[in-house]
Each structure stands twice: as C-alpha cells, then as structure tokens.
Amino acid sequence: MNAEIISIGTELLLGEVNDTNASYLASQLALLGANLRWITVVDDNMDRLVEVLGRAWKRSDLVLATGGLGPTQDDLTREAIAQMLNEDMKVSEPLLQNLKAMFAAMDRPMAATNSKQAALISSAQAIPNPRGTAPGWWVERDGRVAVAMPGPPAEMQRMWQREVMPRLQARIQGRVVMLRTLKCFGLSEAEAGETASQFGDWGNPSLGIYAGSDGVHLRMIARAASCDEAAEMIAGSEVRLRNMLATHIWGADDDTLEATVGKLLAERGLTLATMESCTGGLLGSMLTDVPGSSTYYRGGFVAYSDEAKVALGVDLRLIEQHGAVSSQTARAMADAACQGFGADIGLATTGVAGPDSVEDKLPGLAYIGISDRLGQNSVEGRYPPARLEVKRRVAIHALFVLRQRLLVH
Amino acid sequence: MNAEIISIGTELLLGEVNDTNASYLASQLALLGANLRWITVVDDNMDRLVEVLGRAWKRSDLVLATGGLGPTQDDLTREAIAQMLNEDMKVSEPLLQNLKAMFAAMDRPMAATNSKQAALISSAQAIPNPRGTAPGWWVERDGRVAVAMPGPPAEMQRMWQREVMPRLQARIQGRVVMLRTLKCFGLSEAEAGETASQFGDWGNPSLGIYAGSDGVHLRMIARAASCDEAAEMIAGSEVRLRNMLATHIWGADDDTLEATVGKLLAERGLTLATMESCTGGLLGSMLTDVPGSSTYYRGGFVAYSDEAKVALGVDLRLIEQHGAVSSQTARAMADAACQGFGADIGLATTGVAGPDSVEDKLPGLAYIGISDRLGQNSVEGRYPPARLEVKRRVAIHALFVLRQRLLVH
User: What's the pTM?
Assistant: First the structure.
C-alpha cells in the first residue's frame, strides 16, 4: 500500500509551527507496513491544495491529510477534497445537531461559520472527534482512501489511534506488525543498548532504543504472518530483556509512571501527600492526571520559600544547618507532607531549577525525600540544568522513587 | 519570489527522524520575504527524486534541498539534479584535493565512493562546508536557483547562514516581511474571525487566526518595500484589532500568560498564593515555570478532597451548602490560600476534571476564585470534558482571571 501525507496550513510554511503530525503519522504508517512515499506541506490556498490533493489521490492508495478543518475562511481542506473529487458539500443534519450540542455543553455561542464543520460529500463519512469541533473525513472511492484529520496533535492522535488506524488495519491482511515497548528508568540509552546487544541479533523482532520523557523506551517490533506468531516472538524477547533490566523496567506500552504508582497505592490501600519546592506543583499535577487519583492522593503543598516550608512544618534549624536543597530538608519535607495531610506516605522535592544557583548549589541538583511508616529516605539527582527540564525530570524521578518504595510495602 | 523546500531521505518517511531542517528553512525564508509554497519530503529513490525536483524547478524561483549529499549509494541528490537538468557530473580536481586534505587532516582513509562528493555539473558551483565532507551545490540556470545542502542540521544551518542566505539577500531587493501575533483569551476562533472581518479586506497585512494552547492567536503578516513601511502597516492593523478586542488581548509574539502575570505581580510588588482542586498543581507548576517566580509566588495548596480544603481553612458549611464545585467554595479557597501563605492575592480552582461527575455536576464545569484586598470574586467556566484538557484550560483561564484583576490594582 503506497501512502502519502499532506500537512496543510500556512503557519507550517512560515516556520512558526513545527509539523509534528507528519513524523507521527510516518512512524505509524511504518508500523502498519504501508510504504510512505511523499510528505507534502502546502499552504491554505485553494488552487495549490486541490492540485496537491489531486496528485496524491492519483498516485497513492492512501492519503492522510491533517489541518484545515477549522471553521474559518482559511480552513479549506473539506472544500478542496470536494472540488478535487467533483462532489458537492452538504451540511449533515445529525453532525450539525452534534456540533450545536457541543457548543451548548460548553455554554458558548456557535458562530454561523462553524456549520461548515458539519458538512460532508457523498464519498465521505464523518470521523468522530470528541476533543474538538471538527470531525474528520473518511473518503473512499474507486478503491482509494483519503482521510482528513484535524491539525491539533491531541485531536489528530486520538482520531488516528481510535478511529483511523483500526479501519486501516482491517484493510491490510496477512501481515501482522506487533509492537511492545518496555519503559525503563535509571539507565542511559547507551547502557540499555549495550545490555540488549548481549543477546546478539535483533533482526525480528527488531529493537529500537529511544529516550522518552519518562526514561528510556525499548521498542520491539515483530513482523509475522499471524498475531499468535508475533505475540510469541515478542514474549520471548521480553523475558530476556526483563531478566537483564528488571530493576529498571517500570512499565510497558501506554503505562505512565503516575498511573503505575496510583495503581500500587490503590492496591495497597495507602494514601499519599506531597510537598514540592523545585517542581512547583508539577508532581501534584502529574499525580492528578490520573482519573480516580482523589482516592489515594490526599493533597500537596507547594512550598517555594524557606518561610513556607517552615510554616508547613519543616524544622528551621534543619534548613539553616543543611540548606533548603539538601537530603535532610527533603526528608523533613516529606514527613511534613505526611503529617499535614494525615497521609501514609509523604513525597517531597527540593532542588535548584535555575537559571540561578541557590545556596552555592548549581542548577540541576535536586533531592527527593520520601517518608512513611518504614522510615525516611532521600535520593540525590543531577539533571540537565534547564529550568523546565529540571522540573520535569525531578517529578518523574520522584514518581520512580515512590514506585520502588511501594514495591516493598 | 516563490520558494520550495525538498527534504530528502528515507529515514524521514519512516518517522525515525523529525525533519527540523524544513521548519528552520521555512522561518528563514519568511524573514527573507520569499513565498514558501511547498515543502516536500521524498525518499532516496531516483525516479521520485527527479520527478519532485523537476516539478519544483518548473514552478518555483528558488528550490532548497537538504539531504542526500553523503558518499553512499543511497545519496542521490547530486545525481538527481544532474539528470533533471540533463547535465553531466564531473569530478572537480580542486574539490577532490580539498576532500583528500580533509581526510588527511582527520587521519582517516578516504573511501573511493567519497569522490562523488567532489563532483559538479556545469550549472553548479560548490558551497563550502567546513563541518562535513559534503560541499553544497548552488545551481543557477535560466534565472532560477536550486540549492542543495547537507542533511545534518549543524552543517546545513552553518551553510545557510554563512553562504546561502547572504547570496539570496543580494538577489532580493526592496522586499520586507514582518510578523506580529496578538494573543487573546475568552473568545473562539470563529468569533475572532467575525470581528476581524468587520474591517473588510485583510490582504496586506494578511490575518491568520489560530487556536493556540493559551487561547486564540491573531497573526498579521505585512509585506512591504521597507521595514518602516511594514512596521507602520502592522501598527495600524494592531490598533484596529486592539480597539475591537481589547479585553481579550493579553499579549503578543513570545509572551506567555504565566510570564505576563509574573511581570504584573513584580511591577506592583504583590505576592500570590494558590489553592488548587481540579488543576491538581498544574497552576503552581505553570507559575513556577517562570524564572524568578519565587519573588512573588509564595506557594500553594493542592486540596483535592473536602477534608483537605477544610483543614486548610475553607468553611465546611460553605461546602455542605453549595458544594465543593461552586463559586462560593472557589472564593473561600482563594481566601484561604491568601491567609495560609500571607500573600496579597489568592487564586483558586475547583471543578470536575472527569471522567466522573461530582455532586451531580458534569465534567468540564469549573470555578475560579480570586481574593485580595479589593474583595473576592469568582468566574464560572465550561470546558471540553476531557480530564487533561479541563486541567489545562482551567489553569490558563485562572491565569487570565488573575491578569484582569492585576490590571485594576
């Protein structure tokens, strides 16, 4: 199956927005076993858009378009597909009612221009988009398929995963590609690579090693004639990797650290509280990204200043003696969080996010404290000294520290 | 000048490498005032490469190609340009001597295949590349220009900055493009579009309307003969937009809401504290993304449960009477944050992040509370009912509410 991607939007050609959709879809098409031949980026111009779509439609079995589905005049993807196929656009009454209900639920007026987001042509079916007002289009004619998806990556990726990819998989037969990603923390890409290479050849399943935002990802891809065969290949490789990297592997595939610790807390009937200095609320935010987190997450303090830390229960003398950025203060903060919220476990972060040094400590140094009935503990971490990166990595590291602790509970 | 970018490399179509060269060159072309019409990504395949290059050469005044200049068999850019222009490739003796000297300096043997990196056609001049073994090609014929640059971003960017851009600037005279983005909150893309369309024609400056993560962005692009003229055009349009959308516009260009409120707080010598329920720490995290936020951000409470809210100073009777998700509770939370941290302003969020309803209130409903010496206030918001989206939008909305409040301080 020859595939082609078209990214639509003047902003992409002005270099203001990096086109992440194309590379996302490119890697997804590789998994489907499709041959991606072209990616084209084109601006919000009717003539050029129709030309690019027309060429793609002629030469490719599958055309994936992103962008241009908004309500404004410069959103032309629907119109261009209609013109390219010489079909008329008509507003679909069910889609229009849907759209009106969506605006009503948000208590916002619907502009008249929004109604074109409810339009279809006879070769097009609407693809649901619960994250936005623009449904996608699944266009099928003469054995070819074109799919139009919204430009915002969160909307596009959900539509791809839930709607488009399953339909495409159903069209492809006799070829199975199976993926399995193991997620690690506490070792580098190179270390993971060296360990994996001890198993010799990684032809099929292949192994890709990537730095993810939550540690190192080991991605196995098996290609086989059947699902069973692929699953067996993956399972064999997974056992080998887990034997070598057991202490580092914390999850797989869609697992997140915050959901993983949430599950462990819920299973053990334990509650958690946080006190954050350098992460400034990010740790609490990640914990509460998980639906149902209110059952185990009691709450948190964001205590940026020394005064706030002391007011919330940290002994001033500890800070004076060891500094706010120290393992002693991290442990005391964790304990104070525990006490303050009456939780079973307290988790704390203190560090130098930068750009300035604190207490003669350089940006990138941080301590994670943990306190529970087993006692108190702390871990020192050093991270690339860029403010947002320090915050992110410290929060992830704290979740990993919590996970390790929960395993012995 | 119509321009076109061609990114060459099979790895780009496998989604393994994100094509950052294209967006870099796109933003550079915008500054040069060139009209970038197409970006095409194509794999290392001779037929497709010649076809894509040929189409670009025909329809564009300037073609910028990156990648495919390496020494191996799958590096085909030179060969494809030669075939497209029907010219013969010949190894240039001075380039070959250069290349040999380069390998000698690195104390590495030169493979025979490297010699093709010293080849030219009669329409091509070599462009120096001190960072790698592949010189670029500057191809000029019939008033058109094609430039082939290496794929590694460091090599490409140096070649662009030092060699290619200066030559292009010399060819372009009397053409300036200026960009200005106004950032709004509290109105939809469609509403912004309807308001802007009341000014009639938006030819030059043109106006693009986009949904950003922090509200709606209005981007003006002026094309003129001089910087002064372009600046004047932008200024005139900006005044018109600001007159109509004054209460919605909170910033421009690289501004962020968290930095904007930080600046206002610092200017007024005011301090801030937060109490977050549905945002779970995200609001504190955004505030502390700004370097120097410790001077005005006293700290925050993450109070997910009713018990935590009460323990931190919210009157239980208020919650019992009106619910945790109510304007009354939001105001009391803001006040409790103020008191708890001894801050001038308290900012609070409470809402239903979902997926489950709370107190018979549907996901997507939230209240933002604010409390300061002027009194207490609250704002109701309804957001698309996806958990992370609710959190993000409530946090952004809270920052906007804070900004509006700070303007009257």
Answer: 0.77
Whether B14 shows a pLDDT value over 90: the answer reads no
Burial class (CB in 10 A: 0-12, 13-18, 19+), A374: exposed
CB contact under 8 A, A15 and B37: no
The two structure tokens encoding residue B117: 């990196």
**What are the chain B neighbours of A26 within 8 Å (beta carbons)?**
12-15
Closest Cβ–Cβ partner in B12, B39, B280 for A285: B280
Residue B203: CB atoms within 10 A of its CB come to 8
Span B176-252 CATH architecture: 2-Layer Sandwich (3.30)
A89: closest CA among A120, A118, A62?
Answer: A120
ipTM: 0.77
Among the partner residues A280, A298, A299, nearest to B288 by beta-carbon distance: A280
Chain A contacts of B33, Cβ < 8 Å?
none
Domain positions in chain A: 2-171, 176-252, 257-407
Write out the CATH class of domain B257-407: alpha beta
Contact A106 B383 (CB under 8 A): yes
What's B160's DSSP letter? I
Phi-psi region of B313 (alpha: psi -120 to 50; beta: other; left: phi over 0): left
Fold of A2-171: Molybdenum Cofactor Biosythetic Enzyme; Chain A (3.40.980)
pLDDT tens for B317-376 read: 999 999 999 999 999 999 999 999 999 999 999 999 988 898 899 999 999 999 999 999
